[in-house]
Amino acid sequence: MFQVLFNPFRDLIFDEHFCFLSGDLTNETMTVFPEWLMDHFKFGNERIEMMDKAKSYNYEDLKLPCSTRVKDAFDDLDLKIQAAYKDGFEGMAALDDELLFQWTGRMVYGLLYYEMLYERDRLLKQGEEFVLSANLKERFSHFHLMLQSVIEPISFIGKKPWSIVVFPLKYSADIFSYRDDAINLMFSFGVNGFGFVACLQDNGVIEEKQQVILEKMKGHIMHPVQFEELYARFHYSDYILQYKPEYKIENHDNGITIEVEANGKQPVFGFWDEDIYAQLLSNYWSVYGIEREEILKPQKPLLSFLENPYTKDFVDPESISLPF
Q1: What is the pLDDT at residue 46?
Q2: DSSP-based three-state secondary structure for 279
Q3: Which of 8, 106, 125, 132 would bridge 136 by S-S if both were Cys, CB 3.0 to 4.6 A apart?
Q4: pLDDT, tens digit, for every residue of 288-298?
Q5: What is the number of other CB atoms lying within 10 angstroms of the CB of residue 145?
């Protein structure tokens, strides 16, 4: 049976009476960030800014219209993540990465949804039409389809469409750190015990690019400054990614399959500009007071807390004197 699922990006449907995931008519809502997470780290009443910094919301006020079946599915997913969370790194690392994709995808999509609403309303006030480029429509449509695996019989064949890396991490108790880039479908999450970095639509190529450092990290409990540097590497790699993810999507009697298709027509990554990367990294290291000028000095290798710039040996987290 051929099945056509709801795709809000086809006609740019972002309406409070249509479930964000299924398209079902509804008057129910669910929070963008899981309620247990906001309660545990007490950030529900803190503010989050939209990308242009002109609009902000309380985290707890970010809500998505949803049908009962979608809310129930995410409640079940939350129970699995919460149980794994209690077991720290071992619990999270043991999860199927599809569950982490779905859990992370809910938050990233929720933020993307609000960016779409904000941009649409801003343009309407100016008498302009809200449009998305064909590339963004396709990219976001694929992401939305994959997220529907929470409620629909959608399976992934072979290579996964994402890069998700989980690792041990040392933070002070009760500190919660996360970063997101909703437009580029990226997310990082760190607490005392574990962290993870997720690129939700790169077909795994960024994880492959960073494989050398990921291998060196094994067996170590990362310092937060290393966690920030790792995310900066992933984020900048995504920025210079010259690769259009393509998929073979097929309907079957028992559901939909999604398979990554190889695309070797162009270089996967563009030129790595250390000046731009240093500026990005300084944004993440600002909490430590580390400026761009300290990261990139004339006639000196780039500052790194992951690798010794001369020997390329992994930097032992215990040797880092910065606070955590």
Answers
A1: 94
A2: helix
A3: 132
A4: 999 999 999 99
A5: 19
